[in-house]
Description:
By secondary structure, the chain is of the alpha+beta class. It has helices spanning 6-60, 70-100, 108-130, 142-148, 162-239, 254-327, 335-365, 377-389, 413-430, 461-466, 484-494, 522-538; strands spanning 373-376, 398-401, 408-411, 436-444, 447-454, 498-503, 510-517. A hairpin with a 6-residue loop joins β6 (498-503) and β7.
Amino acid sequence: MVRWPIRLKLIVGLCVVVGMMLILMGGSIFGLHAFHMSNLALTDQLRELGASKDLIEAVFRLHPPRDGSEPERQAAIAAAEATRESLTAYFQELKQNTLRGNRANSGVDELGLSFLMDDGLATVINTLRTEGPTVEPALHGTAHFVARHPDAPPQLGPVTDLASRVERLKHLAMLLPKELHEDFFEILTVSKTQYQASRAIVWTSALMVLGMLCGLMALFQRWVLNPVRLLQRGVRRVARGSFDYKIDLRSGDEMQDLAAAFNEMTARISMTYADLEQQVQERSRQLVRSERLAGVGFLAAGVAHEINNPLASIAFCSEALENRLDARPGPPDDPDRMVAANYLKMIQEEAFRCKSITEKLLDFARCGDIKRERADLPSLIQGVVDMIRHIGKYRGKTIAFHPKEAVLAHVDGQEIKQVVLNLAVNALESMDAGGTLRIEARYDRGMAEIGFADDGCGMEPEVLENIFEPFYTRRRDGKGTGLGLSITHRIVNQHHGEITAASAGPGKGSTFKVRLPIHPSEKDDAVRETSATADAHAA
């Protein structure tokens, strides 16, 4: 998938907007320019029309002298001069319009009429001033105008009648509005053509801009609104606790990267939540277990104390009876004698077994202060391993312990030796001949960790759930009291450590991990301060 960063998408959107503005601006400029040119042409044509009106009025004020008197002649000459000035003004307007290019045509027709009228006025003025007949000269453009306008008065030959010349000027002046009307019509035709072109351009521009606007909105919907909506939906789902919700966004930009980061964050939150839930459950089980152990320990202390005396009396009496039986005369192979001796021996063994159980109960109930100091765990473990290797019933089983480094922890050495002994013995008891127990010591996440991994009978989930409960045992020989792991759990808790058990299932071995602090904890400092304060008050 081709990636389009957001900045590139913004540039594309900006280019589309600029294109829309340019198209609208171009259409508007073209329309305004066409309107402006039409307006200029009409304005200039109106000025020319105004000048022609003044010229026509001046021409129609011309008249030959009625009585031939000097005042009449001077008045006629003044009127002719005024008409010539009007003709000059009209000629200037015509020239400026032609030079500016605001006319619909070249203005040749109006120019020809101007030349003819100028020729006629010159003849009239000369006639009035000389009071004699004058032959009218032919000026430039006259022949062209006569060729284009057959209805114009004849210009060839001498004209001696002043009244006829004036009438001819009036006739020429009447031809000027026709030419101007044709110019107006041509200007309107051009304006109409420009208007139609402008309208087509404006409509085309509007449709193009509308299409570009729709495309831009579709891109905005796809590139911005949809990703933001998906991210908002994902945040709301996660806020309601759906940590397994994934945002499926394939926009090919930073929004997709943000969605991927959000999915990774929710995955980590889900893992953290599951881990915290598991830790809460484990802490709850440990709390319940600790409360049970405390109650059992309190009860065990009283029971052990009350049972020890009767057990001692039973053992003493059975031993005294056995001595009296041995001292009594009679054959040694007497059946009754042998049965009595066996029963007395069994009574002594069971009494001592009960005494051993009561001693363990006392050990379990004993929660005295422990003396912690920095100890090398591999040395403690090695001492326990060397002792176990000399026990005959474990000689067919292997203990693999190869320390790689010194692991120091703040512990009570004797208590930790008992922990190692209990866990190692339980592991060896769960294995058949040829089995291997692997022990390792290392640092892990700021604590010292001792691991015990065996390839014994393994454990079921139910056993793992209750493995540290007092009097709970699943030993294969059925001789366990169920107190060894409970005592181990109590010792580790007193050290502010952790102990966990794991197994892949029956027949797949078990793993125990003991984590111990490597530095004195704040709880130890608080206990020492409390003890010192109590000793000071006692003193």
